[in-house]
Amino acid sequence: MSDHGSNDERARRPADALARLRLIRTAGVGPVAYAQLLARFGNAEAALDALPRLARRGGGGPPRVAEEALVRREAERVGALGARYLFLGTPEYPPLLAEIDDAPPVLVVRGDEALAARPCVAIVGARNASAAACRFARGLAHEIAGEGVSVVSGLARGIDTAAHVGALGIDGAGGTVAVIAGGIDVAYPPENGALQEQVAEQGLLIAEQPPGTEPRARHFPYRNRIISGVSSGTLVVEAVMKSGSLITARLAGEQGREVMAVPGSPLDPRSAGCNGLIRDGATLVQSSADVLELIRPFAGPGSVGVRAPLGRYDGPPPEDASDADRRAVTALLGPVPVSVDELIRQAGRPPAVVQTVLLELELAGRVERHAGGRVSLAA
Protein backbone atom coordinates (compact mmCIF):
# COMPACT_ATOMS: atom_id res chain seq x y z
CA MET A 1 0.00 0.00 0.00
CA SER A 2 1.38 3.41 -0.92
CA ASP A 3 1.13 6.81 0.72
CA HIS A 4 -1.74 7.68 -1.62
CA GLY A 5 -5.32 6.51 -2.17
CA SER A 6 -6.88 5.37 1.09
CA ASN A 7 -3.94 6.87 2.99
CA ASP A 8 -5.20 10.33 1.99
CA GLU A 9 -8.14 9.95 4.34
CA ARG A 10 -6.14 8.08 6.96
CA ALA A 11 -3.69 10.98 7.25
CA ARG A 12 -6.57 13.26 8.19
CA ARG A 13 -7.40 11.19 11.27
CA PRO A 14 -5.77 12.54 14.45
CA ALA A 15 -4.39 9.17 15.59
CA ASP A 16 -2.76 8.44 12.26
CA ALA A 17 -1.47 12.00 11.91
CA LEU A 18 0.18 11.66 15.33
CA ALA A 19 1.74 8.33 14.36
CA ARG A 20 3.04 9.83 11.12
CA LEU A 21 4.62 12.69 13.03
CA ARG A 22 6.30 10.25 15.41
CA LEU A 23 7.67 8.32 12.43
CA ILE A 24 8.87 11.50 10.70
CA ARG A 25 10.54 12.85 13.86
CA THR A 26 12.29 9.53 14.60
CA ALA A 27 16.07 9.68 14.19
CA GLY A 28 17.21 7.87 11.06
CA VAL A 29 13.89 8.10 9.23
CA GLY A 30 14.48 10.37 6.24
CA PRO A 31 12.04 11.19 3.43
CA VAL A 32 12.88 8.10 1.37
CA ALA A 33 12.75 5.76 4.37
CA TYR A 34 9.41 7.26 5.42
CA ALA A 35 7.87 6.65 1.99
CA GLN A 36 9.19 3.09 1.85
CA LEU A 37 8.01 2.28 5.36
CA LEU A 38 4.47 3.39 4.56
CA ALA A 39 4.58 1.54 1.23
CA ARG A 40 5.63 -1.67 2.97
CA PHE A 41 3.56 -1.58 6.15
CA GLY A 42 0.52 0.39 5.03
CA ASN A 43 0.31 2.80 7.97
CA ALA A 44 2.56 4.68 10.36
CA GLU A 45 1.67 2.66 13.48
CA ALA A 46 2.72 -0.61 11.85
CA ALA A 47 5.89 1.05 10.57
CA LEU A 48 6.76 2.28 14.07
CA ASP A 49 6.36 -1.25 15.43
CA ALA A 50 8.72 -2.59 12.74
CA LEU A 51 11.53 -0.06 13.27
CA PRO A 52 13.53 -1.98 15.94
CA ARG A 53 13.48 -5.19 13.89
CA LEU A 54 14.58 -3.45 10.70
CA ALA A 55 17.38 -1.53 12.45
CA ARG A 56 18.73 -4.76 14.01
CA ARG A 57 18.83 -6.38 10.58
CA GLY A 58 20.85 -3.39 9.37
CA GLY A 59 23.41 -3.93 12.12
CA GLY A 60 22.35 -1.11 14.43
CA GLY A 61 20.65 -0.66 17.76
CA PRO A 62 17.00 0.32 18.21
CA PRO A 63 16.23 3.77 16.76
CA ARG A 64 15.23 6.63 19.03
CA VAL A 65 11.52 6.75 18.28
CA ALA A 66 10.00 10.18 18.92
CA GLU A 67 8.00 10.23 22.13
CA GLU A 68 4.27 10.68 21.75
CA ALA A 69 4.18 13.44 24.37
CA LEU A 70 6.82 15.47 22.53
CA VAL A 71 5.01 15.10 19.22
CA ARG A 72 1.72 16.14 20.83
CA ARG A 73 3.36 19.26 22.21
CA GLU A 74 4.74 20.05 18.76
CA ALA A 75 1.27 19.68 17.21
CA GLU A 76 -0.23 21.95 19.87
CA ARG A 77 2.45 24.55 19.19
CA VAL A 78 1.76 24.41 15.45
CA GLY A 79 -1.93 25.03 16.11
CA ALA A 80 -1.21 27.87 18.54
CA LEU A 81 0.89 29.59 15.85
CA GLY A 82 -2.01 29.51 13.40
CA ALA A 83 -0.13 26.97 11.27
CA ARG A 84 -1.05 23.48 10.07
CA TYR A 85 0.54 20.33 8.71
CA LEU A 86 0.47 19.20 5.09
CA PHE A 87 1.26 15.49 4.81
CA LEU A 88 2.76 13.94 1.71
CA GLY A 89 0.03 12.02 -0.11
CA THR A 90 -2.86 14.35 0.80
CA PRO A 91 -4.56 16.61 -1.77
CA GLU A 92 -3.37 19.82 -0.09
CA TYR A 93 0.32 18.90 -0.45
CA PRO A 94 2.10 20.88 -3.22
CA PRO A 95 1.72 18.65 -6.30
CA LEU A 96 5.10 19.31 -7.93
CA LEU A 97 6.95 18.89 -4.65
CA ALA A 98 5.34 15.47 -4.23
CA GLU A 99 7.08 14.39 -7.46
CA ILE A 100 10.66 14.67 -6.17
CA ASP A 101 12.40 11.58 -4.83
CA ASP A 102 13.06 13.08 -1.37
CA ALA A 103 9.83 15.04 -0.89
CA PRO A 104 9.41 16.15 2.74
CA PRO A 105 6.94 13.79 4.48
CA VAL A 106 5.32 16.76 6.21
CA LEU A 107 5.35 20.53 5.87
CA VAL A 108 4.33 23.16 8.41
CA VAL A 109 2.56 26.01 6.65
CA ARG A 110 0.87 29.33 7.27
CA GLY A 111 -1.14 31.10 4.60
CA ASP A 112 -2.82 30.01 1.40
CA GLU A 113 -1.58 26.57 0.32
CA ALA A 114 -3.35 27.03 -3.03
CA LEU A 115 -0.44 29.30 -4.02
CA ALA A 116 1.84 26.24 -4.13
CA ALA A 117 -0.64 24.37 -6.34
CA ARG A 118 -0.53 27.09 -9.03
CA PRO A 119 2.28 27.37 -11.56
CA CYS A 120 5.34 28.43 -9.56
CA VAL A 121 8.72 29.95 -10.43
CA ALA A 122 11.61 30.14 -7.99
CA ILE A 123 13.67 33.34 -8.04
CA VAL A 124 16.91 33.12 -6.05
CA GLY A 125 20.26 34.87 -5.96
CA ALA A 126 23.01 36.56 -4.00
CA ARG A 127 22.51 37.83 -0.47
CA ASN A 128 24.89 40.71 -1.15
CA ALA A 129 23.28 41.43 -4.51
CA SER A 130 23.82 44.67 -6.39
CA ALA A 131 21.14 47.35 -6.34
CA ALA A 132 20.51 46.83 -10.05
CA ALA A 133 19.99 43.08 -9.60
CA CYS A 134 17.58 43.62 -6.69
CA ARG A 135 15.58 46.12 -8.75
CA PHE A 136 15.47 43.68 -11.67
CA ALA A 137 14.37 40.77 -9.45
CA ARG A 138 11.67 42.89 -7.79
CA GLY A 139 10.24 44.04 -11.12
CA LEU A 140 10.44 40.57 -12.63
CA ALA A 141 8.63 39.02 -9.64
CA HIS A 142 5.90 41.66 -9.80
CA GLU A 143 5.27 40.97 -13.48
CA ILE A 144 5.33 37.20 -13.07
CA ALA A 145 2.94 37.30 -10.11
CA GLY A 146 0.65 39.57 -12.11
CA GLU A 147 0.29 36.74 -14.63
CA GLY A 148 -1.08 34.37 -11.99
CA VAL A 149 2.21 32.61 -11.28
CA SER A 150 3.46 32.17 -7.70
CA VAL A 151 6.98 33.44 -7.00
CA VAL A 152 8.95 31.13 -4.68
CA SER A 153 12.08 32.07 -2.74
CA GLY A 154 13.87 31.58 0.57
CA LEU A 155 13.42 34.86 2.49
CA ALA A 156 17.15 35.52 2.54
CA ARG A 157 18.69 38.96 2.14
CA GLY A 158 19.21 40.38 -1.32
CA ILE A 159 17.52 38.73 -4.30
CA ASP A 160 15.16 36.57 -2.21
CA THR A 161 13.83 39.60 -0.36
CA ALA A 162 13.42 41.56 -3.60
CA ALA A 163 11.48 38.68 -5.18
CA HIS A 164 9.06 38.36 -2.27
CA VAL A 165 8.49 42.12 -2.07
CA GLY A 166 7.87 42.35 -5.80
CA ALA A 167 5.30 39.53 -5.77
CA LEU A 168 3.32 40.77 -2.75
CA GLY A 169 0.22 42.85 -3.26
CA ILE A 170 -0.98 41.27 -6.51
CA ASP A 171 -4.68 40.79 -5.76
CA GLY A 172 -6.50 37.94 -7.41
CA ALA A 173 -3.50 36.72 -9.37
CA GLY A 174 -0.25 35.16 -8.29
CA GLY A 175 1.45 35.64 -4.97
CA THR A 176 4.58 34.58 -3.17
CA VAL A 177 5.71 31.42 -1.37
CA ALA A 178 8.56 31.61 1.14
CA VAL A 179 10.41 28.47 2.22
CA ILE A 180 12.43 28.94 5.40
CA ALA A 181 15.23 26.83 6.85
CA GLY A 182 14.14 26.95 10.49
CA GLY A 183 10.86 26.58 12.32
CA ILE A 184 7.72 28.38 11.18
CA ASP A 185 8.04 30.72 14.19
CA VAL A 186 11.72 31.63 13.70
CA ALA A 187 12.58 34.68 11.59
CA TYR A 188 15.88 34.48 9.75
CA PRO A 189 17.50 36.80 9.02
CA PRO A 190 15.99 38.73 11.94
CA GLU A 191 15.53 41.89 9.86
CA ASN A 192 13.10 40.00 7.63
CA GLY A 193 10.77 39.22 10.51
CA ALA A 194 8.12 41.70 9.34
CA LEU A 195 8.38 40.43 5.76
CA GLN A 196 8.04 36.83 6.95
CA GLU A 197 4.84 37.72 8.79
CA GLN A 198 3.53 39.57 5.74
CA VAL A 199 4.16 36.51 3.56
CA ALA A 200 2.32 34.31 6.08
CA GLU A 201 -0.68 36.68 6.00
CA GLN A 202 -0.77 37.46 2.26
CA GLY A 203 1.06 34.52 0.69
CA LEU A 204 2.31 31.13 1.90
CA LEU A 205 5.05 30.39 4.43
CA ILE A 206 6.54 26.86 4.44
CA ALA A 207 8.87 25.18 6.94
CA GLU A 208 10.08 21.59 7.07
CA GLN A 209 11.63 21.83 10.53
CA PRO A 210 9.53 21.72 13.73
CA PRO A 211 8.58 25.01 15.42
CA GLY A 212 11.35 26.55 17.47
CA THR A 213 14.14 25.16 15.29
CA GLU A 214 16.92 27.68 14.73
CA PRO A 215 18.30 27.38 11.18
CA ARG A 216 21.66 25.64 10.90
CA ALA A 217 23.96 25.34 7.89
CA ARG A 218 22.75 21.79 7.18
CA HIS A 219 19.12 22.97 6.94
CA PHE A 220 19.63 25.26 3.96
CA PRO A 221 20.24 22.57 1.31
CA TYR A 222 17.06 20.85 2.53
CA ARG A 223 15.20 24.14 2.18
CA ASN A 224 16.68 24.64 -1.30
CA ARG A 225 15.29 21.33 -2.57
CA ILE A 226 11.81 22.48 -1.51
CA ILE A 227 12.20 25.83 -3.28
CA SER A 228 13.13 24.10 -6.53
CA GLY A 229 10.76 21.19 -5.97
CA VAL A 230 7.67 23.38 -5.62
CA SER A 231 8.53 25.20 -8.85
CA SER A 232 8.36 24.41 -12.55
CA GLY A 233 11.61 26.31 -12.97
CA THR A 234 14.32 28.10 -10.99
CA LEU A 235 15.73 31.48 -12.05
CA VAL A 236 19.07 32.69 -10.65
CA VAL A 237 19.40 36.47 -10.89
CA GLU A 238 22.88 37.02 -9.45
CA ALA A 239 25.23 34.57 -7.75
CA VAL A 240 28.90 34.03 -7.07
CA MET A 241 30.47 30.67 -7.81
CA LYS A 242 29.80 27.96 -5.20
CA SER A 243 26.80 29.82 -3.76
CA GLY A 244 23.62 28.39 -2.26
CA SER A 245 21.69 29.68 -5.27
CA LEU A 246 23.72 27.42 -7.54
CA ILE A 247 22.84 24.49 -5.27
CA THR A 248 19.18 25.33 -5.81
CA ALA A 249 19.75 25.47 -9.57
CA ARG A 250 21.53 22.12 -9.51
CA LEU A 251 18.71 20.55 -7.53
CA ALA A 252 16.20 21.96 -10.02
CA GLY A 253 18.08 20.25 -12.84
CA GLU A 254 18.20 16.95 -10.93
CA GLN A 255 14.46 17.24 -10.31
CA GLY A 256 13.80 17.66 -14.03
CA ARG A 257 12.85 21.33 -13.77
CA GLU A 258 13.81 24.31 -15.92
CA VAL A 259 17.01 26.14 -14.95
CA MET A 260 17.25 29.81 -15.93
CA ALA A 261 19.78 32.56 -15.31
CA VAL A 262 20.17 36.31 -15.86
CA PRO A 263 23.48 37.15 -17.58
CA GLY A 264 25.79 39.75 -16.08
CA SER A 265 29.08 41.48 -16.55
CA PRO A 266 32.12 39.17 -16.57
CA LEU A 267 33.86 41.83 -14.47
CA ASP A 268 31.43 41.37 -11.55
CA PRO A 269 32.08 38.23 -9.42
CA ARG A 270 28.38 38.23 -8.50
CA SER A 271 27.58 37.39 -12.13
CA ALA A 272 30.04 34.51 -12.40
CA GLY A 273 27.55 31.91 -11.17
CA CYS A 274 24.81 32.97 -13.60
CA ASN A 275 27.18 33.20 -16.55
CA GLY A 276 28.48 29.74 -15.69
CA LEU A 277 24.96 28.33 -15.59
CA ILE A 278 24.23 29.77 -19.03
CA ARG A 279 27.49 28.35 -20.37
CA ASP A 280 26.45 24.95 -19.03
CA GLY A 281 23.01 25.03 -20.67
CA ALA A 282 20.69 27.11 -18.49
CA THR A 283 18.19 29.28 -20.36
CA LEU A 284 19.21 32.93 -20.65
CA VAL A 285 16.51 35.22 -19.23
CA GLN A 286 16.18 38.95 -19.86
CA SER A 287 12.50 39.56 -19.12
CA SER A 288 9.42 38.08 -17.48
CA ALA A 289 8.23 37.05 -20.96
CA ASP A 290 11.22 34.71 -21.22
CA VAL A 291 10.23 33.02 -17.95
CA LEU A 292 6.52 32.76 -18.75
CA GLU A 293 7.26 31.30 -22.18
CA LEU A 294 9.17 28.46 -20.55
CA ILE A 295 6.59 27.51 -17.93
CA ARG A 296 3.32 28.18 -19.76
CA PRO A 297 3.36 24.84 -21.59
CA PHE A 298 3.37 23.29 -18.12
CA ALA A 299 0.47 25.27 -16.70
CA GLY A 300 -2.43 23.37 -18.30
CA PRO A 301 -4.87 21.28 -16.27
CA GLY A 302 -3.50 17.92 -15.25
CA SER A 303 0.03 18.69 -16.39
CA VAL A 304 2.88 18.80 -13.92
CA GLY A 305 5.26 20.03 -16.60
CA VAL A 306 8.43 18.33 -15.45
CA ARG A 307 10.75 15.65 -16.68
CA ALA A 308 11.33 12.58 -14.55
CA PRO A 309 13.70 13.45 -11.66
CA LEU A 310 17.17 11.93 -11.91
CA GLY A 311 17.62 8.89 -9.71
CA ARG A 312 13.99 8.59 -8.73
CA TYR A 313 12.93 5.07 -7.82
CA ASP A 314 9.30 4.07 -8.35
CA GLY A 315 9.54 0.32 -7.89
CA PRO A 316 7.46 -2.06 -5.81
CA PRO A 317 7.34 -1.81 -2.01
CA PRO A 318 10.42 -3.19 -0.24
CA GLU A 319 10.34 -6.89 0.64
CA ASP A 320 12.32 -9.12 2.98
CA ALA A 321 15.99 -9.66 2.21
CA SER A 322 18.28 -12.55 3.12
CA ASP A 323 21.66 -12.32 4.82
CA ALA A 324 23.26 -13.04 1.44
CA ASP A 325 21.35 -10.11 -0.06
CA ARG A 326 22.57 -7.83 2.71
CA ARG A 327 26.18 -8.90 2.23
CA ALA A 328 25.98 -8.40 -1.54
CA VAL A 329 24.54 -4.89 -1.33
CA THR A 330 26.69 -3.72 1.60
CA ALA A 331 29.87 -4.88 -0.14
CA LEU A 332 29.10 -2.52 -3.04
CA LEU A 333 28.76 0.54 -0.81
CA GLY A 334 31.55 2.94 0.07
CA PRO A 335 32.15 6.57 1.06
CA VAL A 336 31.55 7.77 -2.53
CA PRO A 337 27.83 8.19 -3.35
CA VAL A 338 26.50 5.74 -5.95
CA SER A 339 23.08 5.63 -7.59
CA VAL A 340 20.54 3.10 -6.37
CA ASP A 341 20.02 2.00 -9.97
CA GLU A 342 23.72 1.13 -10.22
CA LEU A 343 23.54 -0.86 -6.98
CA ILE A 344 20.60 -2.83 -8.35
CA ARG A 345 22.49 -3.62 -11.54
CA GLN A 346 25.71 -4.69 -9.81
CA ALA A 347 24.06 -6.59 -6.95
CA GLY A 348 21.93 -8.64 -9.34
CA ARG A 349 19.06 -8.52 -6.86
CA PRO A 350 15.45 -7.39 -7.42
CA PRO A 351 14.93 -3.65 -6.85
CA ALA A 352 12.57 -4.29 -3.93
CA VAL A 353 15.22 -6.39 -2.15
CA VAL A 354 17.95 -3.75 -2.64
CA GLN A 355 15.58 -1.11 -1.31
CA THR A 356 14.93 -3.24 1.77
CA VAL A 357 18.63 -3.59 2.51
CA LEU A 358 19.17 0.16 2.09
CA LEU A 359 16.19 0.89 4.32
CA GLU A 360 17.59 -1.37 7.06
CA LEU A 361 21.05 0.19 6.77
CA GLU A 362 19.60 3.71 6.88
CA LEU A 363 17.59 2.95 10.02
CA ALA A 364 20.75 1.50 11.56
CA GLY A 365 22.60 4.75 10.80
CA ARG A 366 25.02 3.06 8.39
CA VAL A 367 23.86 4.64 5.11
CA GLU A 368 23.41 8.26 4.02
CA ARG A 369 21.16 9.33 1.15
CA HIS A 370 22.14 12.07 -1.28
CA ALA A 371 20.41 14.09 -3.97
CA GLY A 372 19.81 12.38 -7.30
CA GLY A 373 18.88 9.00 -5.78
CA ARG A 374 22.42 8.22 -4.56
CA VAL A 375 23.60 6.52 -1.37
CA SER A 376 26.88 6.05 0.49
CA LEU A 377 28.16 4.54 3.71
CA ALA A 378 27.75 6.92 6.61
CA ALA A 379 30.87 8.78 7.64
UniProtKB/TrEMBL annotation:
Pfam families per record: DNA_processg_A, DprA_N, WHD_DprA
Cited InterPro entries: DprA, DprA_WH, DrpA_SLOG, WH-like_DNA-bd_sf
Domain DprA winged helix, first and last residues per copy: 316-373
Gene Ontology process terms (BP): DNA-mediated transformation
Domain Smf/DprA SLOG: 85-294
Annotated PANTHER family: PROTEIN SMF (PTHR43022)
Family: Belongs to the DprA/Smf family.
Record protein name field: DNA processing protein
Organism, as annotated: Sphingomonas rubra
